[in-house]
Design goal:
It is built from 4 helices and no strands. Helix 2 packs across helix 4 and helix 3 crosses helix 4. The mean pLDDT is 87. The protein is mainly alpha-helical. The protein is elongated, with a radius of gyration of 17 Å.
């Protein structure tokens, strides 16, 4: 049963990959950015990214700026 699920997942990803490759570059980048932002809002581990950002940058940035940087990181990761 696991082999069937793996096979279905593989072919679903291959289909998405083919679809995205057929898009113009700017559209594909925009889609990637939207996927990254969706990850920011739906992934529970964004707090870890925030804590890492806070530890890495000892500068006196306010919380709002740090969250903006973390959100932009997720958007960039999607591209």
């Amino acid at each position: 049963m696991i082999e069937i699920a793996d096979s279905l997942g593989y072919w679903a990803l291959r289909s998405i990959h083919t679809l995205v490759r057929s898009l113009p570059v700017e559209a594909a980048l925009h889609l990637g950015k939207l996927i990254g932002l969706a990850g920011f809002y739906f992934v529970k581990r964004r707090g870890i990214a925030y804590a890492d950002m806070k530890a890495a940058l000892k500068s006196p940035q306010d919380e709002r700026q740090r969250w903006r940087v973390v959100k932009n990181q997720f958007a960039h990761l999607g591209q």
